[in-house]
């Protein structure tokens, strides 16, 4: 098995389109398709379903997605640590970011806000893990969704923060041929709704749970990965509350539809927290520029 196959898998799971994923990986589409097929052969299962609207993860693919990002991150971490020990690794500004924003918001935002920042190291994980990364001092910045109506994640005097964007979390489900949602919340006639739920370690999961919006639904599947929940929602498995940063493209191309009225939406901030104490020169300059 080659590391590049895992990275290709993650790119296709995000883009849901072979052409866009191949472009993102800077490889021709035929070569990209061969590498995806080689990875499926190595796994021993089909990971994607090909259709007229693009590709969707199979159940096996969703399972692989739940672990692939961590595997890739750990391999790169070990390499960086080994290079640091040998004195070959230059200092990089370290960002920690929740999974959904690392796929969607972070790449474009950091290019716009910090074109001259230099080397960047991105750690992507669930919210609970990201909090621990920050408290250990293993990252200089944390980018995450934040509900201003909930208690603060960190002590403001130790971990200052700034709002860098906004998002909205909405219930979605697969769209039928007429564009209407296959599942709707609340369900008509007292029926129960299948809920595709975030795990409690997830930041979005905490936000949704705190509002008690989905308390009358039956939890059918739980994951800390929004991309996994979106794949299952697209497959018609139930309703998921997803940030628009993640679901917007699927809503536009008709794979998903809003599964409830606008009152079920939750407005959230995209907030950047900085670590306690003095950061490195590049990180401090970046922080000062954001606050201007």
Write up this protein.
- The chain is an alpha/beta fold.
- It has three domains: 3-70, Winged helix-like DNA-binding domain superfamily/Winged helix DNA-binding domain (Arc Repressor Mutant, subunit A); 89-165 and 269-291, Periplasmic binding protein-like II (D-Maltodextrin-Binding Protein, domain 2, 3-Layer(aba) Sandwich); 168-266, Periplasmic binding protein-like II (D-Maltodextrin-Binding Protein, domain 2, 3-Layer(aba) Sandwich), CATH 3.40.190.10.
- The protein contains eleven helices and eleven strands.
- The strands form two sheets. Strands 3, 4, 5, 6, 7, 8, 9, 10 and 11 form a nine-stranded mixed β-sheet that branches. The protein has a two-stranded antiparallel sheet with strand order 1-2.
- Helix 1 packs across helix 4 and helix 4 packs antiparallel against helix 9.
């Amino acid at each position: 098995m080659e590391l590049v196959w895992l990275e290709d898998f993650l790119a296709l799971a995000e883009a849901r389109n072979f052409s866009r994923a191949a472009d993102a990986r800077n490889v021709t589409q035929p070569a990209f398709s061969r590498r995806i097929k080689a990875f499926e052969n190595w796994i021993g299962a089909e990971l994607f379903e090909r259709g007229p609207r693009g590709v969707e993860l199979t159940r096996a693919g969703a399972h692989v997605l739940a672990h692939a990002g961590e595997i890739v991150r750990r391999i790169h971490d070990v390499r960086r640590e080994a290079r640091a020990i040998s004195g070959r690794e230059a200092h990089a500004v370290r960002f920690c970011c929740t999974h959904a924003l690392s796929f969607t918001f972070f790449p474009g935002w950091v290019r716009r806000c910090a074109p001259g920042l230099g080397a960047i190291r991105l750690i992507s994980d669930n919210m609970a893990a990201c909090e621990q990364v920050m408290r250990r001092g293993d990252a200089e910045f944390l980018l995450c969704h934040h509900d201003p109506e909930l208690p603060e994640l960190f002590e403001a005097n130790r971990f200052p923060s700034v709002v860098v964007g906004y998002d909205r979390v909405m219930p979605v489900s697969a769209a039928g041929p007429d564009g209407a949602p296959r599942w709707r919340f609340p369900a008509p006639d007292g029926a129960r709704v299948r809920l595709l739920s975030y795990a409690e370690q997830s930041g979005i999961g905490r936000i949704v749970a705190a509002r008690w919006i989905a308390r009358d639904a039956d939890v059918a599947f739980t994951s800390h990965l929004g991309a996994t929940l979106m794949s299952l929602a697209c497959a018609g498995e139930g309703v998921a509350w997803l940030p628009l940063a993640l679901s917007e493209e699927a809503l536009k191309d008709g794979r998903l539809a809003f599964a409830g009225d606008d009152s079920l939406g939750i407005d959230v901030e995209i907030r950047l927290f900085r670590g306690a104490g003095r950061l490195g020169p590049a990180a401090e300059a970046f922080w000062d520029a954001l606050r201007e």
